[in-house]
Specification:
471 residues, alpha/beta, Transcription Regulator spoIIAA, OB fold (Dihydrolipoamide Acetyltransferase, E2P), 5-stranded mixed β-barrel, binds 5'-deoxyadenosine, binds iron/sulfur cluster
Length: 471
Amino acid sequence: MHLPDFKVARTNTKIAYETKQFHLDERYRNQYKGKTCYLRTYGCQMNEHDSENIKGILEEMGFSMIDDYEQADLIILNTCSIRENAHNKAFGFLGRVKHLKEIKPEIMVGLCGCMAQEEVVAKKILEDYPWLNFVIGTHNFYELPYVLDQSLQEHKLQIEVYSREKDLVEGMPIERDNPYKAYINIIYGCDKFCTYCIVPYTRGRQRSRAKEDIIAEVKSLVEAGYQEVTLLGQNVNAYGKDLYTDYSLAELLADVAKTNIPRIRFMTSHPWDFTDEMIEVIASYPNIMPSIHLPVQSGSSRVLKRMGRRYSREEYLTLFHKMKEKIARCTISTDIIVGFPGESEEDFQETLSLVKTCKFDNAFTFIYSPRVGTPAAKLTDNLTKEEKEKRLHILNQLVNQYFLENNQKLVNTVLPVLIEGKFPKKEDSYFGYTDTNKLVNVSGNVKEGSIVPVLITDAKTWSLDGKVYNG
Ligand code: 5AD
Ligand code: SF4
């Protein structure tokens, strides 16, 4: 039994780590042949990608994946802890699973992901959910075959969560969700410690994967016919800092571009680490998509300082304008938090004025959610829930207005779209994304997985309509 400790998780010392190859002990291979598993994933792309690895491991153990949790022999929740409502959703679902377990005591249930890393969650599970089979952390989820087996042998809950990161594991089996677009981790963890954010506690300090391993993965995806890779990390712009002196995200992007994968995206970027060199590389390779997710969080320098974001409003705007100027047709999306403790009406107005300047192409907006153990959770929060909701509503109205305006400017232009899927029951009706990451409903006769020119015929707030362009 290893329980998480947030004091240890918070330490900013570096831990020496090795890169190991995944190895499935032969006694676990096909151990559960004929059994089924339901895996529910909450949260970000990082979690979705972890789930692809978990599915890969489960399939080697003999499980087949199903969509109906009530029929499953094993139920796993891969959880998120970024905001309170992510917690609520996971505990709500566990409540339903509890009823099922009462009727079918033989079902196995496990929890993994970011919530597993939280001290408060581990305590709650021990007290209120002792019927679970296992809780396993983000740093060692590849130990799942062993931990599940242990819980069955001992007939009791196993909590195997390490407060700090462990070795990097390469060569994990994977079941990818999408046949055309693939996620690739390039860096794990985060060293930024923004004062509101729980990620550095749940995901550990930043650790980059070796460039050779990343390039090899991209090359194998190219061979398998993938059209797009998204390089993932909590802060991809810190890539390489812990491993190399002369190799950063700029060099990695260039090397990935040289594999000739048709589309490259990357996320998430912290503005503080965005160098001119990175901007130049993005601008110069046509297969690096002109679309950047650049979270601003607030338009007020005073709030940004209290958030520990390491840049001011002016510095963000300078970077924003530089990207727009240097990268042709570049779209920029963002994340914004309202109601951070102490956010005054004037601060909020500064956020609105920044949005009016930037006219983002997409924005994910949130009400601040205090996370136990983070520095911001100790700040006095003097805004009412109603005031926070009001600010979120005003902000959403404004960002939506720019999404629509930006989309309207694209009507009658021709854009390249990667066709990802077909609408069921509709003849010649597909959907896909432009290079600038806009969702398009496409009519015409096309092949799924191809990149085709599309004439945009109509614009909505969150999507475009278009038809295949034949010249
Ligand atoms: N409360 C609200 N939003 C948060 N985010 C991160 N932590 C919190 C929090 N405690 C948002 C940030 C981040 C995105 C992934 O989630 O905007 O960029
Ligand atoms: Fe969290 Fe992102 Fe800040 Fe890291 S950079 S602490 S992941 S908000």
